[in-house]
Protein 1
Amino acid sequence: STWGVGYSDGLIHEASFLAAAQTCKNEGLAFSFLWDKEGSIQDFIVDVLGHIQGSLYLDRIDGLFHLNLIRKVTDTSGLLTLNASNTLTVSDFRRRSVGELISEVTVKFLNMLTFKTDSITVNDTGLSQRQGANIAKSIDYSGVVTRKVALQLATRDLHQLATPLYTCSITCN
C-alpha cells in the first residue's frame, strides 16, 4: 500500500517481472533509482519503463500487471498475423523522411565515480552527411550511473531514432 500505488502485490504477474529482470541482467543493464515522493509514482514508473524499454499493462484475461520488454522478436510463432481475413482498413500509412530522423543522441546521467552529471554522445555519421548536419536529441536517464550503460542506451536509442520506420493505423475485426 505504501510503494505499490495502493495495489496488492498479489496483482503482479511475478513470472513476467522475473523474466524482464533476467533479460535486463543478461543485457548488462543496471540502474540505481530513488523515488523520493517529490514526483508521482506513475511518473517514476514511466521513467523506469523508459530505461528498460518496457511496457506495464493490466492483462484482461488474468487481471494481473504484466511487465513486457520491447525487444527484437526472434520467435514469431504465436504472434498475431494481420491479413485480409482480419483487417478491415489500413490508413495513415507513413514513413519518416530523412529530415525527421535523429542522427545524434546524447545521454545525460549521474556518473557514480565522480558523483557529477556526465554525458555521452553517439552519432550516425552517414545519416548526418545525408542530412547535411547533425540532428540531435538529448535524453536524461536518471537511473544510469555508468558510462558503459549510458553508451548502451545511447546506441540503442540512436538506432531507433535513426531508422525510417513505417507507421499506420489498422482497424481489425
Protein 2
Amino acid sequence: ANASIFAIISAFFFEPLPVKDPDRLVLVLQKSAIWKMPHGHSWLDYQDYRDRVGGFDGVIATFMMPVHLSAAGQPPERAWIEATSGNYFSMLGVEPAQGRLFQRGEGEKAGTDPFIVLAHSYWKRRFGADPSMVGKTVFINGHPFTVIGITPEKFFSAQWAIGPNAFVPATMLAQL
C-alpha cells in the first residue's frame, strides 16, 4: 500500500512534465473582485501578454472543454479537448508521434484552422492506433476537423494532472 501511494505521489508531484525545460514553465492566472478564485485570461489578454509583456521566452494559451467527438461510422463520444494557441507544441518542444502538430501561423485567425491533434492514448483506445487516421476527418460537436497528428505517448498536456483526448486551435472555439 505504501509503495502504491508513493508511486502516485511521485508521479503527480515529483515527475517533471515531458516537455522542454519544464522547470521554466509559469502559470499566469488572474483574480478578480467578482470571482475570488484564480482563473484564466481571455484570448485578447493572451495576445497582449504574448505581444507586449517582456520577461518570457514565449506565452501559450490553453483551455479545456468537454465536447462530443465522433468519426465516420462511430457514435459520438463525450471527450475532453484542450483548445490551445498555435505555438503550444513548439513552445513545449513536443514532437509528433504521427503526422504533424500545429505550425507557425495556425490558430491565429478565428475559424480558419479546423485541425485536430489526437492524444496518443485516445488514438490507441478509440482508433486502434490506426496510422491512417492522420488526414481523416473527425467531428467535434458535429463540425468537421482534419486529424493532422498524434501526440507522443508520454505527452498528456502542459497542465498538471490533465489528459485531454485531443487538441484544437483555440481560434476554433466559436465553431464549437
Protein 3
Amino acid sequence: MNVPLLDSYYLQTGYNIDTELSNDEALVVVRPDNKVEIGFRGTNPKKLDDLITDARIAGGIEEGSQQFKDADQMVKDIRAKYGELPEHSSGHSLGGAKSMTIGQKYNIETTNFNPFIGRNLYKTSAETTTPAIQTIVRTTEDPVSLGLAFKPGLGQKDSWQVKVLN
C-alpha cells in the first residue's frame, strides 16, 4: 500500500499508519497514546465487489460478504497485534456500514458519515444495541442514509446519535 502523503501527515501529528494491517478497504492508525483506530472507505462505483456488497447490505445479507468477513478479521488482527480492540472506528457509506457492524459486534465507538444502514442494522433492537456511542453524521441530500430520517424507534437506541447537516 503506497501512502506517502498520509505517512507525511501522520508523522507530523504523531499518528502512525499500520501498513501491515491497512489495505485498500481500510486504514489502521496508531495514535500517539498507542490506541488504535480503523477507518473504512466508502463505495467505489467502479469496483464490482463494492456494488455487490452494497446490494447485500440492502438485502440484509452483508455479513456473509467477503468484505464484511475481512473487516471482522481486521478487528481480530488488531486485537492480536495490539492486545486490545480498536478504540474507535469510522467509515463513509459502505465503510460506515462496516464500521457500525463491527461497532455493534465488539462494542466499539464509531463515527460514520452518510452510512449505508441496511436491514440488519435497522432491525437491531434498542435492547441489543451496544452501549458504545455510534455517531452518525448524515447530510439531508444523501439518498443512502435517507432512511435514518424516517426509521421509527431509532431514537430509542440511546447509543445511536444521529446528527443531520443541511
Protein 4
Amino acid sequence: FLDYRYSQIEMEKGKGDSARERLKAVLARNPSHPLAGEMQAALRGTKVADANIPLNADKIGVLIPLNGPHAKYGDLVVRGLNLAVADWSETHPNEKVTLVIKDAGSEKAVAEQSFEELAKKEGVLAVIGPLGAQASKAVAPLANRDGIPLLSLTQKEDDAGDSSFVLHVFID
C-alpha cells in the first residue's frame, strides 16, 4: 500500500518512470494485491499520458488471423466475441462496447503492426488475441511496454518471458 501511495506521489512530481517501475515490481510480487486494479489503471494512465496514446474505454481490440490458413479459426473467434458483445449490450444497455478487429497475419511483423494500430490509433482498453504462439511472442512485450492488457488465446508455455499485462485464456 505504501509503494502504491509513494508511486502516486512520484507521478505527481513528474517521476513517471520510477513510479511505473515501482508499480510493476509490486504487481510482479503480488498480482492479487487488493489494489492491483488501481495499480494497473495507474500504469495504463501513465503510459497513455507519456506516449499520447488515446484511451477509449468502450473499445476492445481483437487481434486474430483474418486471412490465410488460420482465417477460419479467426472467424470463429469473431463470431464468439460478437455473441458476447450482444449479450453484454442486452444486460448493460448504457455501456456500449465496440470490437476493433485487426489481422494478426502469419508473420510477427504483421502482428506487431496491428497491435500498434490498436494501441496508438484506436486507443483500445485491452486486446483479445492473438491465436498463434509466434504472434503472441511478438506482441506480449508490446503489451507490457504500453500497459495494455492482452488476453492471449495461447497456452502460457507458448509465451516468451513474463508480463504482468498478459493473461492466457486458452483452454487446453
